[in-house]
Amino acid sequence: MLLIGDDWAEDHHDVEIQDESGRRLAAARLPEGVEGIAKLHELLARHGGENLDAARVVVGIETDRGSCVQALIASGYQVYAINPRQVARFKERYATSGAKSDKGDAHALADMVRIDRDQLRPIAGDSGQAQAVKVVARAHQTLIWERTRTFQRLRSTLREYFPAALTAYAELALTSTDALELLIKAPTPATAAKLTRPQIISVLARARRRNRDAKAAAIQAALREPQLGLPEPVTAAYAAAAAAHARLLITLNEQITEMEGQVKAHFLAHPDAEIYLSMPGIAEITGARVLAEFGDDATRYASAKARKNYAGTSPVTRASGKSHTVQARYVRNNRLADALQTQAFSALRASPGARAYYDKQRAREAGYNPALRQVGNRLVGILHGCLKTRTLYDEATAWSHHAHDQPIAA
């Protein structure tokens, strides 16, 4: 067996090859891409022979994505994605100084897959369809997060020089395209006060707003309220910054809508989509996010508990001496945790069983978030059973052992 530690960078890989006894066979810096993979194969053939069994090659690397990882998996190697924090803790076995080098990281990765392989998680063999869902679902969510950050910057800028705009466009929502168009058209208090009602109505009409006359009157009145002013050059500078943020938000709105269509198309093409959509609280976008983070490798989660642990919905027990506490799991996949919380919240209305289970947790004096997390944890277990048996969600079956609680909750 050959053990490989691969410390990757943007344009190269530092690798170390060990045998089963831990003896270093080779160390090299390989280029990224086809050339680097070819040279790695040459190194392995040199030390393992031309008839080397690919299944006896084990690779430790600090990422689970990218063409290089896919090439290693396609070659038949066992590939383990190791969290950089795990590598840093492992290196403390050698020294506590905190020293870091690419060669040192490659050595630690090789040692980890040699010594602690049973404690590590191999990269899941997700299908191409699941990987496609993951790409578009993450891109869509990242664009939404970027829109939120850009909106906060715009809001902060307006508070500095034009707070009346926050009041005027509050009903429209400042992230809406029509509010942003009005802000671009009149980015200063002086120009905004000169906006006529027909100008405002025309922008609202393009956005298909209802009650346009009343909304236009309210916006015009708010923009004409007296406010404290700044020197003209300062106001002009703030206006330029606000307009730039507004144009960026319009573009983000367009791309989010475009990417949403891609998410739905890829998700609905996946064979597991029907099972996910049968779950309470899950629609196309939430379903795509959950599928993207769980993947579709049937062998990845040995049990419902393993899936819950990965989801971060199951609690962590900390026991030492006389101390014994049960805490929420904070080291987790945040994208998955966010999607599951959204599902759990929506399921409170869609599923009587979920609502009764939530009420039961609250009756035990659990807070809102812990109770919602328990609902999410239960739903993850139900999803695991549905995927394992290839059956759709059934309300009566899912909550049968909690049925005696439902009359009390009602």
Automatic annotation (TrEMBL):
- Report domain Transposase IS110-like N-terminal positions: 4-163
Which superkingdom heads the taxonomic lineage of this protein's source? Bacteria
| Coiled-coil stretches | none
Domain Transposase IS116/IS110/IS902 C-terminal stretches: 275-358
Query: What NCBIfam families would the database entry show?
Result: transpos_IS110
> Which PANTHER family would you find in this protein's record?
PUTATIVE TRANSPOSASE FOR IS117-RELATED, TRANSPOSASE FOR INSERTION SEQUENCE ELEMENT IS1111A
The name under which this protein is listed is: IS110 family transposase
